[in-house]
Automatic annotation (TrEMBL):
This is FKBP12-interacting protein of 37 kDa. Belongs to the fl(2)d family. The keyword Nucleus applies. One of its GO terms (biological process) is mRNA modification. InterPro entries: WTAP. It comes from Cryptomeria japonica. Residues 1-44, 283-325 are annotated as: Disordered. Keywords: Coiled coil, mRNA processing, mRNA splicing, Nucleus. It comes from the Eukaryota.
Amino acid sequence: MASSPNLDDDDDFGGDYAGNITRNKRPRPLDDDEDFKEHVEEEHAPGAATGIVLILRDSLKKSEEDCKVYQDKCKQAEDELEKWRSAFQNESFIPAGTCPEPGIVVIAVQNLRSSEESLKEQLEKARKKEAAFIVNFAKREQEITELKAAVRDLKSQLKPPSLKARRLLLDPAIHEEFTRLKSAAEEKDKKIKELEENLAAVNFTTQSRMGKLLMAKCRTLQEENDEIGMMASEGKIHELGMKLKLQKNQNLELRRQIQELLDYMEMLEEGVGKSNELVNTMKKQLEDKDIEAKKMTEGKKPKSGGKEDKKTSEGGNNVDASKAN
């Protein structure tokens, strides 16, 4: 078999045929390897044929490795594609029985992004509302502190301001009269309260003053309940609303206690005023008795010496007894 011109040229310049074969020849399949070896052995010397075979084997091995790598990559890409297809297959935006198209997926992703932005805006609004609730909660706490301070002041004012009231209450007659007046005032207060409750129950209509106040309060509570219901999705805001409602109830309780203390103070002031009036009346009566006794002693004239002394002593005793009374 005739050799190629390239083979003759390479033999003339030092036998560098292996390098040209490597650059010009492409890898052959495995089943043609034996035929190719026989063809090379027929054309070339034993040394050159061995080099060519080794080079071709290395090239074939490298090609097989590259092919295996590419097959693995292709398989991974197919697995990834199948994974994405199965992931989007059961989504609501993919029609049933159809393959998920890239355009549909892109539109769905854009919709998700827009919904994410709207949710972020809602979250920002909720955070602002939360901050407003925190400010209101701090104000309510400050009001509660002020009310507690006012209650402490009122309790301190309920104590006797001086020892004069204590001295007056130590007198048995004044104490008894004060106790009687206090019990009578309590009974009157109870009767007045019952009558007021009966009157309010009889006259309670939507046009009355109490009815209007109650309706306004109900509307306010309804609005607050609606606002709290709108923000019920946020757990922390709901918790703050519950705390605020509890603080409102505590404020109402404190206001009621303060009103009771004020009523009790007014009752005590009325009792003390009545006691002072009674004491003044009794003092005036005692002064009138003293004046009458003096007039009686001055109007009588002594008839005899012994009788005069006796009557004078008896009159003095009577005056002392009346003063004591």
